[in-house]
Amino acid sequence: MRTSELVFRSRREVPQDAEAASHKVLIRGNYIRRLTSGVYSFLPLGFRVLRNVERIVEEELDRAGASQLLLPALQPVDIWRATGRIDKMADVLFRVDGKSGAFVLGPTHEEAVIEAMSPDIESYRDLPKLVYQIQTKFRDEPRARFGLMRTREFIMADGYSFDVDRDAMRDSYRRFYDAYLAIFARLGLRAEPVEADAGSIGGDVNHEFMVASSIGEDHFAHCSDCGYQANIEAARAGERPTVEVDAESEPVTYATPNAPGIEIAVKALRDLGAEVEVGSMLKSMLLIDDLGDRVIALIPGDRTLNVPGGMRLATDAEMTGFAKGYIGPQGHGSEVRVIADPLVRTRPSWASGANEAGHHCVGLRVGVDFQVDQFVDLVVVEDGDPCPRCGGVLSLVRSVEVGHTFQLGLTYSGVLSHARYRSVDGEELPYWMGCYGIGVTRVPAVIAQQYGSADGDAVVWPIEVAPYVVSIVGVGATKTNEVAAVAAQLHQSMVQSGIAALLEDRSISTGVAMRDLELIGSPLFCIVGARSLAKGVVELRDRIREQTVEVPIDAVTATIQSLTRALASERR
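The structure corresponding to this sequence follows.
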């Protein structure tokens, strides 16, 4: 490709909403263009990057033994009703009413892949089966941001496995898991597999592949002592020593009008002479479980609640009979279940609401003044919490999710009567499933964030991702025929050898050309100049290793081929 033929126009100004460096470089480098909020067109440079990402995914999943297919993006609502996800994922679903019925634009394809695969899985002899697709997905994100990081239309590579039992499912899971590690290594990303919450996908064991990033909207907890890693939603802290309760000390109730929040309550109680602080207050929150029953959740006032799976915060309408802002753990009886984080056992007493509007209690003792039906991890982990495995110190790492793998088990096949196979004994059994996703259109943004400049002026793409591996520029080519001729000759030689090469042939200054080429992001620059030609060499600049060497003209193509192989092998 020649730059004069390339659809490319660098931009010096970027939209005000381009906060992230990756968003800036992708806009300034003419990789993507916004159509509407959360929806982007991929221009030729961006599409080349995208296809390189897809190629790496395809090669590694093929190597893992998975077969590629393509499932419909438009799915009838009936299959979503059958698994209950039409309601569970209602907040992100794009619904379409057509002449022939009601449809969903698929955010994921578990139901659809079962419909596609089940006719071919009749017997245990047909298993295992591993498949994957690269397909456009849709999610009605309430807040699209950071360019390609969070969008409403995106491309995913999602894989699915079908097996006879749990052990076989785990074997298939490991094949995808290892393939993911290889994919991210080739993409130049250090993706850490961390334990995660299954969310709306379901299943027991699952891992998110997280890349540390300054613009990440997720965090994962990490223990440097034992290697424990878990997403913030799934991470748990280790046990703390339990403090003995003084059974002789009685709680005291204070009138605290207009003090429904923790901070306000602490100030009101201190004004009344009570020795309290935010960390000694109990947050008593009303939850509703999946059966519709009411549950009081207790955590320290200085911690954040991690709502347990199958539960949600009660609405105002569901607070009837409770003093909103003044709920306490005491006196609820058997009709309300009380759960508490283990941290509630680490203080001799607590201050909390008195279950009466405008009143708080100080000195409430667990096991004496209130009872806990179940102690369960409820708080979001924080820096400095003990590791649940070794007791070491946890640290939080800000990160971006680039992949997610799930051991679904019987989550879907167990509720769909046709998701069955015939066992060796002739019994009809549900098959065991796994699913595996990579955010293909998110990956270029994550790479650009890692390998681009903070101001969005330049990027150095990893060798297997770059739209063009080498950019050729003639210094003074507009003035010297020999420079232009050698640059064109080298370009032709590289193209004939299968190297993705870009020749700068526009009638512009070298400075402007170099600024544009830095946005195009080739990891290798081949610079042809009159001085170097006088010595029979050209300058080859390795932007990944930040090295520059002079190479004889007749050895340039072979040197680039060798260097490309070496750089690619470093990532594998």
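The mean pLDDT is 93.
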